[in-house]
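Q: Got a minute? One more chain.
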Amino acid sequence: QVQLVESGGGLVQAGGSLRLSCAASGNINSFNYMGWYRVAPGKGREWVANIGSSGIVNYARSVSGRFTFSRDDAKNTMYLQMNNLKPEDTAVYYCNLAELSGRGTLSDHWGQGTQVTVSS
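A: Always. Here it is, folded:
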């Protein structure tokens, strides 16, 4: 079984920082895509950042320059370092692992989410 557990969310003032963690367990060797997504109040799911097996990281324009996506393979954990947080970053943040191929998504797993609240 594949399990993803997000942590590190909380309440922070605008301009502050948080580091989110996503700990993975189970048979995860086949995954070649890792991503962070968020759901803000009243909005749909938004892509935040992702990294593929090549190590190339992509960021949404809204977070580029402020967020950093990294991973520690020894700990089976991915991180989202969030700096200079803004109220519009308030959302539930989710991590995602997927196995992608030319045929599409072969498998897809999500964590339970962690709440990030940024006050003005």
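A: The two ends are 40 Å apart (CA to CA).
Q: Perfect, thanks.
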